[in-house]
Amino acid sequence: MEDGRVFEEGVSRRTLIKTAIGVGGLAAVTGGGFGFLSRAEASSGISKNWPWPYVKLDPEKTGELAYNEWYRLFCGGAVVSSIFSQLAETVGEPYKSFPVDAFIFLEGGTSGWGTICGSNAGANMVTNLIIGPRIAGSKDGMLMGSEVMQWYCDASMPVYTPKNPKIKSELPKTVSNSPLCHVSVGKWMQAAGKALSSPERKDRCARVTASVAYHVAELLNQWKDGQYETKGEIPGMLYGINAQLNCTECHGSNIPEPPKTKN
Amino acid sequence: MEDGRVFEEGVSRRTLIKTAIGVGGLAAVTGGGFGFLSRAEASSGISKNWPWPYVKLDPEKTGELAYNEWYRLFCGGAVVSSIFSQLAETVGEPYKSFPVDAFIFLEGGTSGWGTICGSNAGANMVTNLIIGPRIAGSKDGMLMGSEVMQWYCDASMPVYTPKNPKIKSELPKTVSNSPLCHVSVGKWMQAAGKALSSPERKDRCARVTASVAYHVAELLNQWKDGQYETKGEIPGMLYGINAQLNCTECHGSNIPEPPKTKN
């Protein structure tokens, strides 16, 4: 990492990760330079019990709930709500009491600032609240959240088409190569020629939210069956800086003119 | 906005905001193109009561708690914990039951991805959980969260110096001009010549966390006294895309080579 090679696109991300981690060595890495504490150091003072009870969900139903809930709670809140509302019915607490509506602020990349796409933030909330924080014994919650973010970066979005979409015509699909709202929405707006305030952009984001919720349900179901093997990584551990894993996406000539679409 | 002028640094942000909003017109704007629902549309289905009970906090004590808690829960969790742990003592529920440890995942810009600095994410959580989501009657929670983010962008960080810092020497201060972990930490690492894994970088982030928690306590105290007048804006409403308010910070020639500091 010292020679800066990791910042070159020519180097395979997977190769780098395998080199850095080694087979079965993730635990060693995650205990390293990023500031992670050992389980023994951190276990005191934890008053909550994890994992939270989980009953397997129908991904399709979860996607539909998230799609419709977007029009009330937007991206972050809708991902959490689509999963917690079902578990509130089948399991009850602590899902019933969880103040999901407060997380409407995740919209627009947190209060409209274009940072992390709310559906990624909501996914991380769900996986970490259900599986638990890494200091409670398992890193799978954080790693699953990270896995969803990489999947989001790579996917041709929106992946999921709702049964009764508000916009009947087909929507363009774009690959964000970034977990950020600004980049993800901006690339789609440019490809579609649609404004932020357009019904098409809104429905695109509702479908992205549904796509993420669907995938989170799939992964949680695997975890419940004891079959979850994470593809998630903690980029800060690998690159010497907290970052997405494709540096030249921003550090390069790849940054477009700001879109001129009308508000 | 159609001619792209808003993306030029020469245009005053304040002027733009005043032009776009008009005096007293924020409510009209926030009901506009961003997808915001009216209160009547959204009020059904809200099972929680807001605002949550709040007792004024000592900002200094809050900063100290956040600083020390960073070494257990890192940026996002520590901001929430510093405030909720005090309110759990003075008020009790719903603070006592809140699963704050799960939010350790906000570290490193969410699972090490360098997106929103966890202290900004934690600040938004606190203001929206206490004051409530905008669909519950007040936009102040979201606007206060946004105000903290702009303050974070503009501040020479870290602002707060703890009473007994782990690093005794003075730390360099930097202005992030961004709410993102990657940019904020990256600029500091470059100025300080310190790696992500260095004790100095960790203590810098602990102090940034304390700075944000201190400021959130100040703003919440104003709000409790009925004296809070927000400086927060929802950028997505003004710029036609969810974004930070200084476009040329990224859309320009301002992006450095990736830092070569060792991991």
Explain what the structure shows:
With 263 residues, chain A is mostly helical. Mean pLDDT of chain A is 83; it is low at 1-47. Chain A is globular and about 50 Å long. Chain A has one domain (48-249). Chain A has helices spanning 13-21, 26-30, 39-42, 59-90, 118-131, 140-154, 181-192, 199-224, 235-239, and strands at 156-157, 174-175. Chains A and B meet through helix 4, helix 5, helix 6, helix 7 and helix 9 of A and helix 4, helix 5, helix 6, helix 7 and helix 9 of B.
Gap from first CA to last CA of chain A: 42 Å
Helix content of chain A: 40-55%
Structural class of chain A: mainly alpha
How would you spell out the order of helices and strands of chain A?
HHHHHHEEHHH
Our count of helices of chain A gives 9
Count structural domains of chain A: 1
Number of strands of chain A: 2
Assembly annotation: homodimer
The largest sheet of chain A has its strands arranged as 1-2
- Name the overall outline of chain A: globular
Q: Give the DSSP E fraction of chain A (strand runs of 2 or more residues).
A: under 5%
Radius of gyration of chain A, Cα only, in angstroms?
19 Å
Largest sheet of chain A: 2 strands, antiparallel
Low-confidence stretches of chain A: 1-47
Largest interface: A-B, 88 and 87 residues
Secondary-structure blueprint:
Two copies of one chain form a homodimer.
Chain A: H1 13-21, H2 26-30, H3 39-42, H4 59-90, H5 118-131, H6 140-154, E1 156-157, E2 174-175, H7 181-192, H8 199-224, H9 235-239
Antiparallel strand pairs in A: 1-2
Helix pairs in contact in A: 4-5, 4-8, 5-6, 5-8, 6-8
